[in-house]
Design goal:
Chains A, B: Pfam families: polyprenyl_synt (PF00348). Chains A, B: Its cofactor is Mg(2+). Chains A, B: Its EC number is 2.5.1.10. The structure is a homodimer. Chain A is mainly alpha-helical. Chain A has a single domain, classed as Orthogonal Bundle (Farnesyl Diphosphate Synthase). Chain A has 15 helices and two strands. Chains A and B meet through helix 2, helix 6, helix 8, helix 9 and helix 10 of A and helix 2, helix 6, helix 8, helix 9 and helix 10 of B.
Chain lengths: ~300, ~300
Amino acid sequence: MSFKEEYEKKVELIEEILKKYLPVQEGYQKIITEAMAYSLMAGGKRLRPMLMKESFDLFGGEGDLIDPFMAAIEMIHTYSLVHDDLPAMDNDDYRRGRKTTHVVYGEDMGILAGDALLNYAFETACVAFDLEPEKSTRIGRAMKILAEKAGIHGMIGGQVVDVKESGHRISEDVLDFIYRLKTGALIESSVMIGAVLAGASEEEISVMESIAGKVGMAFQIQDDILDITSTTEMLGKPVHSDEKNEKTTYVTLKGIEESRKDVERLTAEAVGELDGLGRENEFLKDLIKWLVYREK
Amino acid sequence: MSFKEEYEKKVELIEEILKKYLPVQEGYQKIITEAMAYSLMAGGKRLRPMLMKESFDLFGGEGDLIDPFMAAIEMIHTYSLVHDDLPAMDNDDYRRGRKTTHVVYGEDMGILAGDALLNYAFETACVAFDLEPEKSTRIGRAMKILAEKAGIHGMIGGQVVDVKESGHRISEDVLDFIYRLKTGALIESSVMIGAVLAGASEEEISVMESIAGKVGMAFQIQDDILDITSTTEMLGKPVHSDEKNEKTTYVTLKGIEESRKDVERLTAEAVGELDGLGRENEFLKDLIKWLVYREK
């Protein structure tokens, strides 16, 4: 099977898990479950649950203990997009080629759908306690990583500085902070949770965190490059949005060529560290490399 | 000590716990920690953490295992207020006599501060796993209750229907649904978590849930009554806001007199069920009764 075929098969499995863990659409509050499904099932690369599952497999994890956390991380990623798109934030009407959640359901429901997805992420992760109660300590640790990496010392922290500095010229230091937190933290959390739930050693968990940090940075720089070099049709979202929002990006600070080199260097380092673990995972390596060459 | 003195002493202890669990105000993202503290430390009755602690004590809970959950439930309550006050929601500029979070920090930071408080609630609750790792199963269950009662089948579900039906004439059925979920669910979660962490029996947990459901309903009806009968100075927030927002309330459906009677009946029932548990807790009984007579 080619990488592309394997990747698409894995995406299908993830979509099934997401559908399984989405709330039933019923009751007086049905509209919110529709808005949650609308935003969560809008496609996307499913990179975070995929990395989580690959990390779980890498360390010999078995069974479905990882499933609720895979759904949870994608719900957290999705809620952050729903709130990012709001009029008071980036004010985007389209994402992944479809109208954004608040455009379809109204601004009030956009706010509540984001809240609902964030809350439901933790509700979903808690299912793991029922699946394998004897692993409660391990699940508790995974829960803590999930919360920490999504919060003010993780993703939200990055968003805050991103929003605060929008329209200002910022230093490389601040940009690095934003990227590490806004994009890197959830990717770190994905592979760390996979490793923790599979019973990896402290050292292994720490190596996975380092790999993910580099992958996250490479991924975000590639995003900046695509915002300049791609088209709206290809990307499924408006290009040149950084320019429109007067954002300092990796590309505006370092230029396209150096940005491309850094993506390649970070990716090579991540793959090297992965090799150093001495465990077989061709697909995970290919997935990381693919990030450099992706076109959307 | 009078009830009032005892209550105020308990509020002080809760404020100390909240301060202890608030994030340090530092780093590039400092503004979000300031906004979190601004909204969380704005006063308020601290009813939810107080009920949680009383329930924990009622079932012989010892030590500080309950503390992170007390902070967590108040963070969840607070985030819901911060998002409720946003321009796209209730559009309120004042709460508890102070400017609302988005008025002080901007609408974007208002959204992010709410997100941050919700996420930090779970991050904070996870501290319990470190405090008493041997109780991980119990803590996992408390975490699940926290998430479920705050989510689409709890508080958020109630908010969704409340927002959706605003300006419409609604049935008693729908109003009951909104009150049980929007207000009742977090109060249920408070006493249930206290009971679970203290090691109460399934039956005891279930009785506490029933008591809290009645207390929550009485509390919300009293809120409707005060919106009509109180003043902005007394309440620390605008009165007649329900009228302004064309909201159907318990008072518009049943009238003030029947509303008052129902508050008293529900309170008497709750106190009766509490007595039925055969455990001493004079303060908890007084607290429940006080809800009927409170003026703000």
